[in-house]
Structure formats: structure tokens, C-alpha cells
Known about the structure:
By secondary structure, the protein is an all-beta fold. It has strands at 3-6, 16-22, 29-30, 35-40, 45-49, 54-57, 66-68, 72-77. The termini are far apart.
Amino acid sequence: MATNVIMPMLGMSQESGILVRxxxxxxxxxxxxxxxxxxxTDKATVEVEAGATGVLANITAAEGDDxxxxxxxxxxxxxxxxxxxxxxxxxxxxxxxxxxxxxAPRSMxxxx
Length: 112
């Protein structure tokens, strides 16, 4: 089943993000957690990771586009899976989540 790639919400008041560049192209294999694209907000430029493993397909956003948060901009499909016939939804409300910039420090478990 295809997984939507959306413009993520990277800040509390963010309404859109600028797609700086795709790190993968349509037809490229991607692994969940692998950097997929760079997005610029009013405060930072961050890499956004793939939310699934598969093949990047149906890219609808170009580098430099200012895209509203939650808009579907591509799909990740299983290898060999046909791209769904239906049009990609413009917005995926349920998929909007807050993401932290990849450069943010990560806490380590306390040593015992």
C-alpha cells in the first residue's frame, strides 16, 4: 500500500515550508528513516526522513515550491507496486505531525 509523503509541520506556528531540494528522485529506492528531502521554514532548513521503505513515486512538488503543511507531495510505494489510479489527495490531515530538526540534540539514557 502506498504511503503519502507530506509537507511536515516542523514548528508550532508553521503553515508552510519551502522544498529546498529532493535528496531522492522518482523511481529511487528509499529506506524508512533515510533523508528524503530538505525543507526550509522561517527558522531553519532540515532534512526530512522517509516514513516508509519502498520506491519514491508520483512527486507533485518541485524544488523551490512553498507548500502548505499537510499537503501530499509524493508517494512511497512497495517495489513493483503500481501507483494508485486515484489522484493523490491534496492534504493528509491525519498525517500531519510535529517533527524536530535532525540537527537537534538527542538525549541519551542515564547511566546506572
